[in-house]
Amino acid sequence: MDEFRSFSVDPVIFTRGEDTADYPDPVVEDDPLAETISAGLAIQIDEVSDTVSYVGRAEPGTLTSGFVWQISRLTETGPDLVVEWAEGTSEFDKVWDNRLLYNYS
Questions:
Q1: pLDDT, average across residues 95-104
Q2: pLDDT band of 5, cuts 50, 70, 90
Protein backbone atom coordinates (compact mmCIF):
# COMPACT_ATOMS: atom_id res chain seq x y z
CA MET A 1 0.00 0.00 0.00
CA ASP A 2 2.99 2.36 0.08
CA GLU A 3 2.30 3.36 -3.53
CA PHE A 4 -1.22 4.47 -2.58
CA ARG A 5 0.09 6.82 0.08
CA SER A 6 2.82 8.28 -2.12
CA PHE A 7 1.69 11.54 -3.63
CA SER A 8 2.69 15.16 -3.66
CA VAL A 9 0.51 18.22 -3.48
CA ASP A 10 2.09 21.64 -3.53
CA PRO A 11 0.71 23.56 -0.53
CA VAL A 12 -1.35 26.58 -1.45
CA ILE A 13 -2.94 28.84 1.18
CA PHE A 14 -6.00 30.80 0.15
CA THR A 15 -7.64 33.72 1.88
CA ARG A 16 -11.44 33.59 2.12
CA GLY A 17 -12.89 35.32 -0.92
CA GLU A 18 -9.62 35.27 -2.85
CA ASP A 19 -9.89 34.50 -6.55
CA THR A 20 -8.16 31.15 -7.06
CA ALA A 21 -8.40 31.04 -10.86
CA ASP A 22 -4.72 31.97 -11.28
CA TYR A 23 -3.43 29.17 -9.03
CA PRO A 24 -2.52 25.71 -10.30
CA ASP A 25 -4.89 22.93 -9.33
CA PRO A 26 -3.25 21.17 -6.36
CA VAL A 27 -5.03 17.88 -7.07
CA VAL A 28 -2.86 15.12 -8.49
CA GLU A 29 -4.85 13.48 -11.29
CA ASP A 30 -6.16 9.98 -10.47
CA ASP A 31 -4.92 10.12 -6.86
CA PRO A 32 -7.92 9.60 -4.54
CA LEU A 33 -6.02 10.56 -1.40
CA ALA A 34 -4.74 13.81 -2.90
CA GLU A 35 -8.26 14.62 -4.12
CA THR A 36 -9.60 14.04 -0.59
CA ILE A 37 -6.99 16.28 1.00
CA SER A 38 -7.55 19.09 -1.48
CA ALA A 39 -11.33 18.86 -0.91
CA GLY A 40 -10.83 19.38 2.84
CA LEU A 41 -12.41 16.05 3.80
CA ALA A 42 -11.54 13.90 6.78
CA ILE A 43 -10.24 10.47 5.85
CA GLN A 44 -10.22 7.07 7.53
CA ILE A 45 -8.03 4.24 6.21
CA ASP A 46 -8.39 0.65 7.36
CA GLU A 47 -5.69 -1.66 5.97
CA VAL A 48 -7.21 -5.09 6.56
CA SER A 49 -4.45 -6.97 4.71
CA ASP A 50 -1.39 -6.38 2.55
CA THR A 51 -3.64 -6.08 -0.51
CA VAL A 52 -6.98 -4.71 0.75
CA SER A 53 -7.75 -1.33 2.32
CA TYR A 54 -10.95 0.57 3.00
CA VAL A 55 -10.98 4.33 2.58
CA GLY A 56 -13.70 6.54 4.05
CA ARG A 57 -14.20 10.24 3.40
CA ALA A 58 -16.50 12.65 5.22
CA GLU A 59 -16.68 16.19 6.54
CA PRO A 60 -14.22 16.86 9.38
CA GLY A 61 -15.66 16.05 12.81
CA THR A 62 -18.14 13.49 11.46
CA LEU A 63 -18.93 10.53 13.70
CA THR A 64 -17.97 7.16 12.24
CA SER A 65 -21.53 6.00 13.03
CA GLY A 66 -23.18 8.67 10.85
CA PHE A 67 -24.74 7.95 7.43
CA VAL A 68 -22.48 10.54 5.77
CA TRP A 69 -19.42 8.59 4.61
CA GLN A 70 -18.16 7.83 1.12
CA ILE A 71 -16.47 4.43 1.34
CA SER A 72 -14.29 2.63 -1.17
CA ARG A 73 -12.37 -0.62 -1.09
CA LEU A 74 -8.91 -0.68 -2.69
CA THR A 75 -7.55 -4.05 -3.76
CA GLU A 76 -4.05 -4.55 -5.15
CA THR A 77 -3.94 -7.30 -7.75
CA GLY A 78 -0.40 -7.53 -9.04
CA PRO A 79 0.47 -4.18 -10.61
CA ASP A 80 -3.19 -3.04 -10.63
CA LEU A 81 -5.17 -1.16 -7.99
CA VAL A 82 -8.90 -1.92 -8.13
CA VAL A 83 -11.22 0.71 -6.62
CA GLU A 84 -14.75 -0.42 -5.71
CA TRP A 85 -17.51 1.55 -3.99
CA ALA A 86 -19.69 0.50 -1.07
CA GLU A 87 -23.03 -0.66 -2.51
CA GLY A 88 -21.75 0.37 -5.95
CA THR A 89 -22.06 4.12 -5.36
CA SER A 90 -19.72 6.94 -4.37
CA GLU A 91 -22.46 8.83 -2.51
CA PHE A 92 -21.79 10.19 0.98
CA ASP A 93 -24.50 8.04 2.60
CA LYS A 94 -22.67 5.13 4.24
CA VAL A 95 -21.58 4.36 7.81
CA TRP A 96 -17.83 3.97 8.29
CA ASP A 97 -18.38 1.55 11.17
CA ASN A 98 -20.24 -0.77 8.73
CA ARG A 99 -17.57 -0.75 5.98
CA LEU A 100 -16.96 -4.52 6.20
CA LEU A 101 -20.69 -5.27 5.81
CA TYR A 102 -21.27 -3.52 2.47
CA ASN A 103 -21.17 -5.12 -0.96
CA TYR A 104 -18.54 -3.54 -3.21
CA SER A 105 -18.58 -3.04 -6.97
A1: 97
A2: very low
Instruction: Please state the domain extents for the chain.
Output: 2-98
For position 78, what pLDDT does the model report? 87
Q: Which residues of 52-87 are buried (b: 16+ CB within 10 A; e: fewer)?
A: ebbbbbbeeebeeeeebbbbbbbebeeeebeeebbe
Residue type, 48: V
pLDDT at 2 > cutoff 50: no
Contact criterion met (CB below 8 Å) for 87 and 70: no
Measured CA angle at 36 (ends 67, 49), to 5 deg: 75
Q: Output the pTM of the full model.
A: 0.66
Q: Got the DSSP string for the chain?
A: -HHHH----------TT---TTSPP-PPTT-HHHHHHHTT-EEEEEE-SSSEEEEEEE-TT--TTSS-BEEEEEEEETTEEEEEEBTT---S-B-GGGTTTS-B-
